[in-house]
Each structure stands twice: as C-alpha cells, then as structure tokens.
Amino acid sequence: MVASRLSFWDHKKILVTGAQGFVGSFLLENLINKRGVSRDAIRTPSSTSDDLRNWENCLKAVNGVDVIIHLAANVGGIGYNITHPGSLFYDNAIMGIQLMEAARLSKVEKSVIIGTVCAYPKYTNVPFEENDLWEGYPEETNAPYGLAKKMLLVQSQAYRKQYNFNSIYLLPTNLYGPRDNFHPEYSHVIPSIILKIDKAIKENKGQVHLWGTGQPSREFLYVKDAVEGILLATEHYNKSEPINLGTGNETTIHDLARLIATLMNYTGEIIFNPQKPDGQPRRSLDIRKAEKEFYFKSITPLKTGLIESIKWYQKQSFIP
C-alpha cells in the first residue's frame, strides 16, 4: 500500500485549498510526513490574498497543477447557519464551481471535492446511503450550505460525462479534533460544548445550557482519520458516484455532552433548551462503500478523539 501511495504522488503538483484551516492543516502534514510529498510541490492559496470567489484567482491557483483537493469553505454551526444563509450559499457555490471550471480548462488530472453530510435530506433512512442523497430537502438550517455543496456533485458528474474530467466527491460526516474552530459564534457542536463547560468551570457555575432537546444524534469522525480517508480516495477512487466518510457510530447530543463533561471533570447540571433548534434529527452514515473502494476505515474512538480535542483546547486557553 505504501508503494502505491508514493507512486501516485510522485512528480505531481498539488493544490490544497483551505490548507490553513482545520482539516487542511492536518492534510498538509499527512502529505509531507506520511506520503513523502515535498512542501514545494504543494500549492496552498490564502483566503485573504487568493480569494477563490474571484475567477482570476481560481485560474492562477490551478495553473500547472496535477491534483486539486478542495477543502476551502465558509462553514459554521447551527447559529451561524441561521444568520448567514446567503453568504454560505454564495461563497461555497461560487468557489467550487469556478475552481472546477478553471481546473477543467487547465487540464488538471484529478479534482477531489469535499462535500458535506448536510447535503442529505432532513429525513433519511439511517444509516444514510449515498443513493439517499436526492430523496428530499436538507434540514432547513443547513440547507443553503448543504445545497451549495451538493451542486458541486452535479457539476462533477456533468463534467465527467461531457468532458471526461476526473473529479470525485466525498461526503464526510461531522468532523472534530485539535485545531477545530472554537469561536463562540461559529463553532460546531463539539467545540461549542467544550467552550461552554470550560466557561462554567472557570466561573464556578453549576449549570451549562445547550441548544435543543439533546435527543438528535450525530456521527463524529476524527480529523486525522478524515484526512486519511480523503487521501486514500485521492489515490484510489476515480468514479462519479459520491462516497461517505464516517465511522458508522451514532451518538446523541445528550450522551456527547455528558461524555465531554466527564472528560473535563465537570459535575454540574446540563440543561437543554428545546426552544432552540435541534438541526437534523439523526445522522449516521453507511460506510461500506469507502471501505470497499479504497480500504478506508476510521480508527480513532470518540472518547480518544475528544480527549485530544480537549487537551489541545486547554493548551490554547492558557496562552497569554
């Protein structure tokens, strides 16, 4: 397996969008430290100086590149999704659409598009199978983001059919881990809970208030496992059908919150606010296709990944 990985990356120029972000930083490290790719062979445009909403920047980014891994996204939790639906739709759609068109014009060998579990319908049979993707409308708070990303699957399949453009589309479930976004307004569920429990501990509060009923379920994939899945797919998968990346394990938000509280030694009460939205009722992916097509299987248990996430966050908290 190692020999085939090295031969795939040998002599290739690689574009990684979003390389400064949560997933991108780990993907960059994996390419260099595990795949043996030279840093000079990897192009990592910055969102500030190389805004991919600009067509000229897309053309510049893909020029001379062999492989694209498109991670750049405007993304946040439920609260952010509710207040920024327009920018979430526009930013994610326009970046992906322009980048893929620029890649086609530049004759890029392979494009890897990272979609989202938010593209699935609100009510989907569990576990979610890739064929379920078009069976209904996404959960309302996630819909603009999910649909923008979903259009990149349409583009990917259309470009393969008309232009024989080699583009693949991956559907990762909820990601978490060190370096996640811990901003109080933009964070997803795991960093949000860690933030609130940490605040309660520091302020000696006996209660933590969380959004929703606590009954919805989510599936959480550790960031380093997700990166390995993305790179395995890049190396081995060349078909137009989308593929789930996940663990196959479902956890309720209530149980997640209690586990995080235990790991942080918080003994106070966790109170859920049913007046706030829950988001999608359940999430759990059918992961058989990824294992069959490119031998991917997650290896990090949720508890282990949460410990690493909490450790990383606590280290940042004490930086003056």
Rg, Å, rounded: 19 Å
Average pLDDT value?
94
Topology pattern, helix = H, strand = E: HEHEHEHHEHEEHEEEHEEHEHH
- The CATH class assignment is Alpha Beta
What key phrases describe this protein's structure?
single chain; 320 residues; alpha/beta; Rossmann fold; 6-stranded parallel sheet; two-stranded parallel sheet; 11 helices; 14% strand
What does this protein structure show overall?
With 320 residues, the chain is α/β, with parallel strands linked by helices. The protein has one domain: Rossmann fold (3-Layer(aba) Sandwich), CATH 3.40.50.720. It has a 6-stranded parallel beta sheet, with helices on both faces.
Topology readout:
Elements (H helix, E strand, L loop, with lengths): L1 H8 L4 E4 L4 H12 L8 E2 L11 H8 L4 E4 L7 H6 L1 H21 L4 E5 L28 H21 L3 E6 L1 E3 L12 H14 L4 E5 L5 E2 L1 E3 H14 L6 E3 L5 E2 H11 L5 E5 L14 H7 L7 H16 L3
Helix pairs in contact: 2-8, 3-5, 5-6, 7-9
Task: Briefly summarize what is shown.
This protein has eleven helices and twelve strands. With 320 residues, it is α/β, with parallel strands linked by helices. The protein has a six-stranded parallel beta sheet with strand order 2-1-3-4-5-10, with helices on both faces. Strands 6-9 form a two-stranded parallel sheet.
